[in-house]
């Protein structure tokens, strides 16, 4: 078998390989196929590493595609395929190893999804050291569930990440409510996230106006919403003016944002909910998570998607290298799934830079605990 393996070449894919990749895709999969257009886009514009397996005649008989995520140390094995008549010779294992080598150049963790009924692939990943960490019901076009697997290419993730459920925001402007729902469910597992509650929380915490479209949520309003549901809440805000007021130009809208914030702050003061005028350090974040609390932190998405937008994430763990966050935004315009947004490993120094927003470098963190 070693001689057979040696005669087959694995190399980086190029745009000239699109035809061969499409043939491979159509030969190997009946559903959930990558289209010709997607292959071309990914190979020319995507942040990816694709390896193709070629027979001695140069024909592509298998491939592995890894996608990377800007601003994080996470990669995703998006697809791995070998022609059915070429299986059983160890080609998939070689492709997987090549994919891991490519991923390790940019990422510390490699994740994947696999059909729950694909016993052969599941065994391959288990033997290669991947650990299961979740399931997505009815993920595939045939209605089948997806199993999530992860492998640490350098180090290993901290323990305890599994206690934080994941909930994806259903609207562009509900990242704050989605983070609150994740925090509530982590602290009180009987509190199941729902879209109705997501919208209710948004109505309670909205700033009314922002740059465009419906507004996001104020840290003060989110803190009140959590307290209204019986949780112990504290707030750290470093803000020389009014949160997000610079995101609008209209003076009348600015005045509304100021009024809304003044009202939130007055309610917090009446209810004796602590508000500290300083950012929460990484060391303090680590202590909150270790004590069973849940921190929700404001970031700017520029490092992730080159958009200067305020965004809320849940910090689910920290280690010496990374801050791990649940990001509720699953981008419909790129190839993403919940697996790409769960426990995202962000280098500590990068997280420090991104956890501030706007010209005033506003910072905010909401800490939620059981009473």
H and E string: HEHHEEEHEHEEHHHEHEHEHEEEHE
Please give the domain count.
2
Overall mean confidence score, pLDDT: 93
Structure summary, number of beta strands: 14
Q: What sort of overall outline do the alpha carbons produce when their principal axes are compared? A: elongated
Number of helices: 12
Over all CA atoms, what is the radius of gyration? 23 Å
Helix content: 25-40%
Q: What is the beta-strand fraction?
A: 15-25%
Strand order of the largest sheet: 1-2-3-4-5-7-6
Q: Give the CATH class of the largest domain.
A: Alpha Beta
Kindly, what is the distance between the CA atoms of the first and last residues, rounded to a whole number of angstroms? 63 Å
Query: What is the CATH architecture assignment of the largest domain?
Result: Alpha-Beta Complex
Q: Which superfamily, in CATH terms, is the homologous superfamily of the largest domain?
A: Cysteine proteinases
Contiguous low-pLDDT stretches (5 residues minimum) are none
Structural class: alpha+beta
> Which fold name is given in CATH as the topology of the largest domain?
Cathepsin B, Chain A
Give a written overview of the molecule.
This protein has twelve helices and 14 strands. It is of the alpha+beta class and 371 residues long. It has two domains: 2-156, Gcn5-related N-acetyltransferase (GNAT) (Aminopeptidase, 3-Layer(aba) Sandwich), CATH 3.40.630.30; 162-369, Cathepsin B, Chain A, CATH 3.90.70. The strands form two sheets. It has a seven-stranded mixed β-sheet with strand order 1-2-3-4-5-7-6, with helices on both faces. A seven-stranded mixed β-sheet has the order 9-8-14-10-11-12-13. α8 runs parallel beside α9. The longest helix is centred in the last third of the chain and has 20 residues, at 251-270. The radius of gyration is 23 Å and the shape is elongated. The model has no long low-confidence stretch (mean pLDDT 93).
């Amino acid at each position: 078998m070693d001689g057979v393996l040696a005669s087959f070449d694995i190399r980086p894919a190029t745009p000239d390989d699109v035809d061969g990749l499409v043939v491979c895709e159509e030969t190997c999969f009946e559903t959930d196929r990558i289209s010709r257009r997607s292959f071309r886009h990914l190979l020319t514009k995507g942040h990816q590493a694709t390896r193709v397996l070629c027979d001695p005649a140069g024909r592509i008989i298998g491939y592995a595609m890894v996608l990377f995520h800007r601003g994080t140390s996470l990669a995703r094995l998006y697809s791995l395929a070998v022609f059915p008549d070429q299986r059983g010779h160890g080609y998939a294992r070689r492709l997987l190893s090549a994919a891991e080598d490519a991923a390790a150049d940019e990422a510390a963790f490699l994740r994947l999804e696999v059909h729950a009924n694909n016993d052969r692939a599941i065994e391959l990943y288990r033997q290669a050291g991947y650990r299961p960490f979740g399931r997505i019901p009815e993920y595939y076009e045939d209605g089948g569930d997806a199993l999530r697997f992860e492998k640490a290419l350098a180090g290993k993730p901290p323990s305890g990440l599994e206690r934080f459920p994941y909930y994806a925001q259903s609207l562009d402007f509900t990242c704050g409510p989605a983070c609150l729902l994740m925090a509530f469910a982590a602290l009180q597992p009987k509190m199941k996230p729902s879209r109705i509650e997501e919208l209710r929380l948004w109505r309670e915490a909205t700033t009314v106006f922002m740059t465009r479209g419906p507004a996001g949520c104020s840290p003060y309003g989110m803190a009140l919403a959590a307290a209204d549901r019986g949780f112990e809440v504290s707030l750290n805000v470093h803000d020389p003016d009014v949160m997000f007021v610079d995101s609008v130009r209209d003076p009348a809208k600015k005045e509304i944002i100021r009024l809304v914030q003044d009202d939130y702050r007055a309610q917090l003061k009446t209810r004796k909910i602590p508000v500290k005028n300083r950012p929460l350090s990484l060391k303090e974040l680590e202590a909150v998570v270790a004590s069973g609390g849940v921190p929700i932190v404001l970031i700017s998405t520029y490092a992730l998607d080159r958009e200067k937008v305020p965004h809320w994430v849940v910090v689910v763990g920290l280690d010496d290298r990374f801050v791990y966050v649940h990001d509720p935004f699953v981008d419909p315009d790129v190839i993403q799934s919940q697996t790409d947004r769960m426990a995202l490993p962000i280098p500590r120094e990068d997280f420090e830079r991104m956890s501030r927003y706007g010209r005033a470098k506003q910072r905010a963190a909401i800490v939620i605990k059981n009473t």
